[in-house]
Amino acid sequence: MKRRDFFKGSFALAGASMLGGISAPALAQKKLRIKFDSYVSESAGPSRLDQWFLTELEKRTKGEVNVRRFWAQSLNKVGEHLSAVRDNTSEMSLIAPGYYQAELPVTRGLEWYFRMNRADAMQLVCRDLYEQFEPLRKEWEERHRAKVMYWTNWYYAPLVTREPIKSLADIKGKRIRGYGVATEVIERLGGTAVPMAAPEVYTALERGVLDGVYGFDFITSVAYKLHEIAPYFTDIGDGPHAPSATVMSMETWSSMSPEVQQVCKQLVDEIYAGKYAEIFGAAAREYVGKAKAEGVKFSALADAEKARAKAIIQPAQTQGWIENVAKPAGIDGEKMQALIDAAIQKYDGKGTLKRPIEFATQA
After folding, report:
1. What is the pLDDT of residues 197-245, one digit of tens each?
2. What residues contact residue 245 under an 8 Å CB cut-off, 6+ apart?
């Protein structure tokens, strides 16, 4: 895929199918037409999961639900999707909380690095917190009138640089593009964080404005062709990247028949039971092969350097959210983080989704 095509706008109107589905009486009901609105292209990692959900929803409801897909800001621009779902002008959307930090202070408590290892486990941590921590659920369902259908994330985000990174000392002074809390990681590790919109990153690398990129997930980095200029992809031991949520307006959810709601719940159960890991694993294998063929050099920091990085970032990053975001907003941050710790303990050791370097080095 050409870099310029990654966010190229496109949408598709999918027809009904005869596969699977709901009972015959439901077919007599008026068809429900909804718009799915995403700021990224249909080739992005989370889009693959969204596409599976939407396609299966149409198939299993035998056309009672019809979905128009609007990709790559073709309906709303970055930063507009949360309000569009809240106002029901878009019925479904992928929401990346990093773009809505003021509107989602509780959700920001789920954004951190260096606390766990596996992306598929992080998805389950977010699911449990949504069920267990009422302020998180209310933030979405009452404040923004959006029901989280399922949690997702952006897989893993290696440090992508023009020059090799062999130790934390090599990061110092580097100008690195960051996103969300990734910006804080860069600064704490001695780099200079440069806020920048994703479509501008390739040109900034090309012109030497940036020395590297962090907070760009692996699949997006390769699709954006960042490796043409910055071929060094370094695993710094930071864990999974950027929790996100695919949401539906509460008004749309309430308008669905009980049969359609049940289909949605079944699909979500399948996502959490392994479909997420299956879809992302296949995409990662594909993009690792492509990256290696196009000259990407995969490496990882030594374990001692990873441990140093973790000690620099945590628990300071999490505590910063408690002190600077949770307390001023009246959120019981200590309770939320205790629930997160328990969920990490429960799920992280069971996670299976490999990191890019694991795919790259396997026989």
Report:
1. 777 899 999 999 999 999 989 998 998 899 999 999 999 999 999 899 9
2. 94, 95, 97, 107, 126, 140, 148, 149, 150, 151, 152
The answer to whether 173 and 187 have CB atoms below 8 angstroms apart is no
Averaged pLDDT of the chain: 91
Give yes or no for a cis peptide into 258 (omega within 30° of 0). Answer: no
From 245, 237, 244, select the one nearest 117 (Cα to Cα): 237
Euclidean distance between CA atoms 67 and 344, whole angstroms = 35
Distance CA 154, CA 219 (A): 9
Q: What are phi and psi of 229, to 5 degrees?
A: -115, -35
For the stretch 112-146, pLDDT in tens is: 999 999 999 999 999 999 999 999 999 999 999 99
Strand, helix or coil at 161? strand
159-240+287-329 CATH pick, 3.40.190.170, 3.30.420.40, 3.30.450.20, 3.30.565.10: 3.40.190.170
Phi, psi of 15, rounded to the nearest 5 degrees: -90, 175
Q: Which helix (H) or strand (E) holds 4?
A: none
Which fold is adopted by the domain 3-154+242-286?
D-Maltodextrin-Binding Protein; domain 2 (3.40.190)
Confirm if 256 and 233 have CB atoms less than 8 A apart: no
CA-wise closest residue to 66 among 14, 18, 22, 24: 14
The DSSP H or E segment spanning 69 is: strand 65-70
Distances in whole angstroms, Cα of residue 331 to Cα of each of 95, 136, 192, 255, 321: 21, 10, 31, 32, 10
pLDDT beneath 50: ranges in the chain: 1-20, 23-28, 363
Taking only Cα atoms into account, the Rg of the chain, rounded to an integer number of angstroms, comes to 20
For the chain, give every domain's residue range. 3-154+242-286, 159-240+287-329
Question: Which element (helix H / strand E) includes 46?
Answer: helix 45-60
CA dist 232 and 297 (Å) reads 5
